[in-house]
Every structure is written in structure tokens, then in C-alpha cells.
Specification:
With about 100 residues, the protein is an all-alpha fold. The chain has one domain. It is built from three helices and no strands. The longest helix has 29 residues.
């Protein structure tokens, strides 16, 4: 049940990252070519933030689920889930939303 809570919260943030990529793709030239970013730095950073999320979060949630089934203490599960959520939100915002020159 604890893992499901963090999976739901992370799923909401994943939706935010997805909408950010879609919004940026809508304003780039030749938007019908979805696999080329044409050097748009904000779009490239957003795509990587989105991709990095999907590369790591499912595996950690799976490991959390196994730990929960093995009856790891709820406190440890909450610490792991909170750290994962905070880390992913910080990475997603700093890498996908903020622009550095």
C-alpha cells in the first residue's frame, strides 16, 4: 500500500513532465518530426528529464514493492519513497523547467 502511494504521486509528476515535453514540441519548428529537437535546448533538457524519470523510477518502485511484500518496516519504505519523490521532483524541475545560459 505504501508503494502504491508513491507510485501514484510519481505518476502525477510524470504527467507534468510529459505535458512539458508536449508543450515544448508544439512550439518548435517542424513539429511533425517528433524525433528531432533541432537544437532547441529547452526541449532537449525536458526530453532528458522525462527520459531519465522513466529509466529509473519503475525499477525503484519495483524494488520498493518487493521490500514491502517482504515486510520491510513502513518507516524505511516511507523514507525511500520520500527520497525518490523529492529527488525526481528536484531533478525534473531543475533539468526540465529551468533554463541555464
Amino acid at each position: 500500500m505504501i508503494t502504491a502511494l508513491y507510485a501514484a504521486l510519481l505518476g502525477l509528476f510524470f504527467t507534468v513532465l510529459t505535458l512539458r515535453v508536449l508543450a515544448l514540441r508544439g512550439v518548435t519548428p517542424l513539429k511533425w518530426l517528433a524525433f528531432n529537437n533541432f537544437g532547441a535546448q529547452a526541449l532537449e533538457r525536458s526530453v532528458r528529464a522525462h527520459g531519465n524519470f522513466i529509466e529509473y523510477v519503475p525499477m525503484v518502485l519495483l524494488m520498493m514493492y518487493f521490500a514491502e511484500v517482504a515486510e520491510l518496516s513502513p518507516l524505511r519504505l516511507h523514507i525511500t519513497g520520500t527520497m525518490l519523490l523529492l529527488g525526481r521532483v528536484m531533478h525534473g524541475i531543475c533539468f526540465g523547467f529551468l533554463e541555464f545560459n
